[in-house]
Amino acid sequence: MPIYEYHCRGCGRDFETLVRNSETPACTHCSGEDLEKKLSVFAAPGSEPEMAPGAGACGTCGHPGGPGSCALN
């Protein structure tokens, strides 16, 4: 039984719901059935998304030109 993500056109809210067989889901907020199925993103077990490190003080961003060459300035 997959979990699907929907956008309710009636109230504008997004929600997830468990859908069984050919069951027609309803909005969990307003019970509306005018829904748009959203593209879901999945996560693989044991994987974490990579986060880019934030820029530090001048000279620590890793720019190959060294201090004073930072592209963030």
Plain-language structure description:
A three-stranded antiparallel beta sheet has the order 2-1-3, with no helix packed on it. It has a domain at 3-37. Helices cover 0% and strands 19% of the residues. With 73 residues, it is mainly beta. The chain is built from no helices and three strands.
Main features:
73 residues; mainly beta; three-stranded antiparallel β-sheet
Total helical elements: 0
What does the average pLDDT come to? 75
- Stretches with pLDDT under 50, minimum 5 residues: none
Proportion of residues in extended strands: 15-25%
Task: Give the overall form.
Answer: elongated
Query: What value does the Rg take, in angstroms?
Result: 22 Å
Strand ordering within the main sheet: 2-1-3
Fraction of residues in helix: under 10%
Coarse structural class: mainly beta
First-last Cα distance:
51 Å
Total beta-strand segments: 3
Strand and helix order: EEE
> In this structure, how is the largest beta sheet organized?
3 strands, antiparallel
